[in-house]
Task: inverse folding
C-alpha cells in the first residue's frame, strides 16, 4: 500500500513501481501468496487519454459562476479567451464586502534568530505561533494552525499546549 493523507491506501497503482514492489515484497517474504503477485502484476497498456481542459471546447455556450473573475491576471484572462469566453458578467456578493484583513507587516513572521535560552530556532518559531494565536483568540477570532506532520504537532503541544484553554487537536 501507499501512505496518502496519513492513511494506508491499497487500491492505488503507481505504474511499474507498484509491480516491482510486489516482486520485492514477495521475494522478501512479506507477501506469501504467489496469486496476489500474479493478480497485481502485468503490462499496463494505455488505451486513451482525456484532457479535462479540452472539454469546454466542445460546447457552444459556457456558463458558470465564480467569485474570482475580478482578480484574474492577464495570463488567466487570455486563457479564458482561448476557450471562446469573451463576455463576463460580474454580480456583487450576496455576503457584502470581504472583512478579511491581511497585512504582510503583521501577519507574516520570519524567524531569523534562535531563542537565547534554548538556542532553538524552532522554539522561537513555536513561541511566535503561540503569541499570534493568543492575540487572535483574545480578539474573539478563530485560529487554525497547520503543521507539516504529527511529529511537529506533538513537539508543539508538549512545549506550548498548556498555553491554550481549549484542547489542541
Result:
Amino acid at each position: 500500500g501507499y501512505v496518502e493523507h496519513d492513511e494506508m491506501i491499497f487500491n492505488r497503482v503507481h505504474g511499474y513501481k507498484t509491480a516491482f514492489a510486489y516482486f520485492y515484497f514477495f521475494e522478501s517474504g512479506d507477501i506469501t501468496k504467489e496469486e496476489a503477485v500474479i493478480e497485481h502484476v502485468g503490462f499496463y497498456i494505455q488505451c486513451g487519454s482525456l484532457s479535462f481542459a479540452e472539454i469546454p471546447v466542445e460546447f457552444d455556450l459556457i456558463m458558470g459562476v465564480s467569485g474570482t473573475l475580478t482578480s484574474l491576471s492577464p495570463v488567466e484572462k487570455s486563457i479564458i479567451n482561448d476557450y471562446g469566453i469573451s463576455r463576463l458578467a460580474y454580480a456583487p456578493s450576496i455576503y457584502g464586502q470581504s472583512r478579511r484583513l491581511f497585512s504582510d507587516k503583521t501577519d507574516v513572521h520570519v524567524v531569523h534568530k534562535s531563542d537565547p535560552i534554548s538556542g532553538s530556532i524552532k522554539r522561537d518559531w513555536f513561541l511566535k505561533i503561540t503569541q499570534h494565536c493568543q492575540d487572535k483568540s483574545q480578539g474573539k477570532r478563530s485560529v487554525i494552525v497547520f503543521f507539516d506532520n504529527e511529529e511537529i504537532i506533538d513537539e508543539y503541544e508538549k512545549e506550548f499546549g498548556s498555553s491554550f484553554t481549549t484542547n489542541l487537536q
